[in-house]
Amino acid sequence: MSCCLFEYCRVQELKVVREFLFQSQQNNNSSADKKGENELVWDDSNWGSWDNPEAKEVGSGETTGVEEDTAAVSAPWLQDCVVSLSPCSDLMVVAKGSKAVFLSARWQTDDGGREGMTLAVSWSGTLSINEGESVSNVICIPLASQKRSSTGRPDWTCIVVGFSSGYVRFYTESGVLLLAQLLNEDPVLRLKCRTYEIPRHPGVTEQHEELSILYPAALVTIDGFSLFQSLRACRNQVARAAAAGSEVVQPPPLAYKKWGLQDMDAIVDHSSVGIMTLCVFDQMRNASILGGFHASVKGSLPAMSQYITVGGGPYTGFYYAIEGSSQPLLSHVALAVASKLTSALFTAASGWLGWKKQNEEEPTQKQKPKVEPATPLAVRFGLPDSRRHGESICLSPCNTLAGVTDDFGRVMLLDVGRGIAIRMWKGYRDAQLGWVQVSEGRGESSPSAPLPRRHAQFLVIYAPRRGILEVWGTQQGPRVGAFTVGKHCRLLYAGYRLMGVNSVTSQGWQLHTQQVCLFDPATGALRTVTVPFHLALSDKKSERAKDLHLLKRLTTLLKKVEGNYLESEAQRVLLDIKHPAIKKQALESLLANKNAPVSCLTNITRLLLANPEAVDEALLQLCSSQLKLLQLYTDIQQLHSTVEASTDAHTKPVREELARVSLILQRYTELTSGSRPSVSFAQDSPDASLPVRGFLSQMECEGEEIRVVPGPDADWTQLGSFLFWGCLIGESPLQKVCDTLQETGISPQHLLSLLLSVWLHREKEVLKKPKAVRHLHTLLTALSSMKGAVESSWDMQCVSPWWQQVRSACVQSHSAAAALLAAIVAHRAAKDNITSLAETKVTHTHTDSEWEAVSLELEQWAVCVRQLEDVLALQTLLCVAPLKGTPGGATPHCSVKALLEGGRGGIADSVAKWVFRQDLAPERLKDMLKCGCCIKECVFCVPPELLVSVCQRFPDSLSPDLLFAHCCWEYVVQWNKYPEEGRYLCCAVEHLKRVSSPHIQLGISSMMWNTFLVKRFSAAAFLMEKVGKAPKDRLCRRDVGMGDGATTSFLGSCVALLQILMEADSGIEEVTPPELCVEEVWGGAEGPASIVELALEQRGIHYPLVQHHCLLATLLHTAMTFNLRVKPLSLFDSKGKSAFFRELVSIQLMPSGDMDPGLVSLRQEFLLTVLTGWVKTQSEAGMAPASTRLDLDSGDETWPSLCLDLGTLLQVNPDILRRHLVCELYNHGLDPRAEQVMLEVEDKDVLGSQLLVLTGQRLSYSLLHTQTQTKPAMELLARLPPTLCTWLKAMDPSELGCLSVPLSQTSRLVSRLIEILPENHGQYSLALHLLEAVEVLQGED
Q1: Which part of the chain is the Rab3-GAP regulatory subunit N-terminal domain (predicted)?
Q2: Are 971 and 991 in contact (CB under 8 A)?
Q3: What's the pLDDT at 1290?
Q4: What element of type H or E holds 146?
Q5: Which regions in the chain score pLDDT beneath 50?
Q6: b/e map of 498-521 (b: 16 or more CB within 10 Å)?
């Protein structure tokens, strides 16, 4: 046992703390860095960092070596802050300037499941109230609870903050201001607290609680009892005011004493030692020195409060304030003392600021509080050193010693009572000090040692320049510990505990406080120093220290030495150790060593057991128990080294069962053995021999019985392999091993658990050894016959606990094949066992009840075996390797317990996940379920016979509707994870289409819409409404969460889903709801409701509202497909807009009647734009080469009919759409399609006028705008009537989508024009002239 430094807490969010405190300085860093590039600066960061051979690295594991130095580059920021840690380590305050951050304790669980305490930010803000003031010092005082049930934990913690303006303010942990008081107009230098400590000796003066506040020339002390009561009252008042919503009542000011410290040039730190009483001799000595021969001395001894200050001129000053009396001690100084003591009264500060709410603003002008004058207090004496200036003082816990640091890099130890320096350390510049007080443990002192227990004090010195933390024994003790730490840490020493504790309330309390904490800002770790008491004793007088040295030597031997030399040296060291507890610890270290052989451990343990000096009962018990375990380990090892042939009986029924499941076992073995290779360590392999220390750690001996200690599965399997694997593979005498284990008294239940663990965890090796099944049968039979396995008094009408243990292990295992083999073997062994028990009771039990008992137990086994066969078939299917490039992760593993706990949909959910990993198309899945194994494997790239086999085993759980519903849900869940994969959502909709039940379709559709789609759908609609067009990729990713291409596919799937929803709602009344059944052996499934069960619970929808959303989805999909400019929501009136994105089951006020003509005009313009975009797509697809054509949604032939349907819903005249479509088709040279659509146009006159203009544009291009005009064309142009010639010249051929149209098509178009135009039409004659001109041109060509 040596001095150690361990981490007990970690501070989180340090980066957030730093950014908040230094936010105002971040903008100035760049300019300061540029300014300092050309300056030569003395770098003293590594001053004094010489190597220390005695220092040792702290094994915290976070940052060491170069990593710690690199991490600490950003650490010096903490040196500019004021830091305070509560002694209970549950609150830390970090302040800089006017800002502060409070960090409170929280319990956090890491990845390994271990809980640990962390400090996280609970409050941050600005504490300064007056302009220009800043935080100068902070202290956290935990206040004790006044409840009788308290065990020593604080009720709450008060944060006391001193400011540069002289104010002292008190806050709660949440930053609420309790009270504030101006005690002096100078900056607050230091805040220190003294709390109650139980006197260790009757003659020690009981010290009262006190808060002391140091100013440059004054010292203010506040009585702890009155402060405690005031803070409690203020906190209660604030809580009541907050609950009632009223203003806070102003509390009375604090009572305090104020001393004016004189005769020192500068004061930087102080310590309030407390009340001290002089003895009679010291009183008479002082009187004779100060008053001379005629001095008079009072009979009563005066009580004085002692204060020690450090600074300059003198270096250390000692002040004494007489308590409770104003009479002088000596006649020579009567007047002086009287004048001082009469004004040292408890005063009420008139400088109370008053309370205010946080939302209340301060008045622009406020009267400055009155500050009471200080009572002068002269220095009694000091340590004069004109060149030395003190920097800090740290008082020891027992108030007898104090450590002082100065600017010369010295640490001085003061005797407080005598006022002298008794020790000095050199080379500790900027040192930080703390104290550790250790009590002597029970059993460490000699029996004759008087009570109370002894205490030892150790001085902790942190030297930041050297990056070392040292622990020194006081007063003249050696250095007992040294640790290499970071160079930017902070040593946090409170020096006090809980406030509000007294001699009555502290009885039976365990105060959970830390004495010294080292805070490393580079890692956020809080570490504390633990020092054993024996380090304060001298080596010559302490046998324990010698024993600990021997223990340390043994530890070194175990790390470096092996073989016979290790045995001899370990024996010598163990015999030399005298203390029984340390000898026991040494033996435990030896037994836990990995290098010590079994013979060595056995010989040493036997030697210690036979040693006549060993009189400690605990040591003898340890030796005896460990010797038994070592003997068992040796016996098992020897048995495994011998080979005997074992006979197996009653295996014929087992062979029949194995033959029945041999095909599926073979297929499972092929799939699992072909898995990808993985990396494993040799020592972690089950084949690795179990070291003796592992055996001893998992076994314990109590009296005559040996018990197995439960542990992790890996250790359990390794121990089971050590005991039984040789028997399972036929290399060890099975019966002898069982007899040896039975003689040791190990519980048969533990042995059964070990056997099943090794069997179930080593499945791959078991499947490669067919004979292992016979050996398992023999082992189970042997273990069942042990005493305590199957009780002879077992009621055969109940389930046997022994065989129930086997079934529990099998149904929980994820090794499907091994669990099935174990169940088959155990079923046979249980049947034989039940038969033998029934034969012994045949004379006492009636035959009918006997057969009932047998069927009850065997029925459990029949169900278990059937369940395991089903699980094996399902697991075999899941082991089929997925296609390359498909997500899905590792192969899932299932068990009977997992399927039962997964509810009725667990099986279908597992198969649906497999379908997704195989990327199986919905149509192909449907064909596989219909045709079964008739389809060849190469068609689907997966073995369909496995899927059919599983579906046959689960006819109810894997019915087509349930399977398609779960596949649909799995695909939509995967799409929600990867929204860019639009095909996942398309597949989900396709699976949903193949569900035959409209009830299931309706429920699944509603759940998909509400859970996954409506949020993204509304985001897409609002985004398009905002930008007024089809949004680009960046905007889609920002608002919808996917790219523009995926958004288009998503909107198309929304249209399909809403159409399915409407169709299902229409057919729901014609079909009865389906009844969900489950297989008989899986009837005990309990767990979450399946997707289908949830779907059947969904409420009906409001059909018009769904149709309304489907219309919007179609508009959005159309706009995205053709990249159109439109504001989709603007195409609806106010009723239509308010109905969008509501619950589909709600009844909404829908648009009705005729629409506003302006809206109808916008809708018509949109639909015409859609038709134009579709015709352009068709034209471009016709001109592109066949090899480069893309199968786009925009090229779908259904768009024209869709636009006409939309026109009907949007109250747009369909004939206008048809005429526009005809014109666009002719405009782009698609005359055959235009002729088909022309047949459906009703208003032929208007269409004829539109087509006449288009014909004129074509003819104008042929006659006037071609680059190679022919002579006949020019002659024809000259022969044309002037009216026609002028009309052709007025035409603009640039409006044509396709310029080079054959004359035959134009001639046919003119013929159509003459057919549809009536003869009395105003432009009929113009059409005849056009026909004549086209025929002439066509004849000349």
Answers
A1: 77-492
A2: yes
A3: 81
A4: none
A5: 30-73, 325-365, 443, 445-449, 650, 681, 684, 843, 845-853, 933-941, 1185-1192, 1195, 1268
A6: bbbbeeebbeeeebebbbbbbbbb
Question: Could you tell me which residues come within 8 angstroms of residue 713 by beta carbon, excluding any fewer than 6 positions away?
Answer: 757, 761
Q: Answer whether 396's CB lies under 8 Å from 435's CB.
A: yes
* Rg of the chain on CA atoms, in Å: 47
Helix axes 1157-1183, 1214-1227, angle to 10 degrees: 30
DSSP 333: G
> Residue 967: what pLDDT?
96
> Six-digit token pair at 567?
């045995």
Question: Residues 708-714: contacts with CB within 8 Å, 24+ apart?
Answer: 708/746, 708/747, 708/750, 708/753, 708/754, 713/757, 713/761, 714/684
Neighbour tally for 243: CB within 10 Å: 8
Residue 40: predicted pLDDT: 37
pLDDT in tens, 253-288: 888 999 999 999 999 999 999 988 878 888 888 788
Q: What is the pTM of this model?
A: 0.62
Cα gap 846→141, rounded to integer Å: 79
- Pairing relation of β-strands 154-163 and 479-484? unpaired
pLDDT of residue 929: 83
Residue 716 class from Cβ within 10 Å (0-12 exposed, 13-18 middle, 19+ buried)?
A: buried
CA atoms in the 13 A half-sphere facing the CB of 1050: 29
Give dist(CA 226, CA 220) in Å, integer. 14
> In angstroms, rounded to a whole number, what is the distance separating the alpha carbons of residues 964 and 970?
10
Sequence-ordered alpha helix ranges (H) in 88-128 = none
**Would residue 419 be called left, alpha or beta, if left means φ above 0 and alpha means ψ between -120 and 50 degrees?**
left
Distance between CA atoms of 415 and 403, rounded to whole angstroms? Answer: 9
Distance, CA of 1242 to CA of 1238 (rounded, Å):
9
Q: Is there a contact between 1163 and 1211 (Cβ–Cβ < 8 Å)?
A: yes
In angstroms, rounded to a whole number, what is the distance separating the alpha carbons of residues 1009 and 987? 15
User: Do residues 1226 and 1309 touch, judged by C-beta distance below 8 A?
Assistant: yes
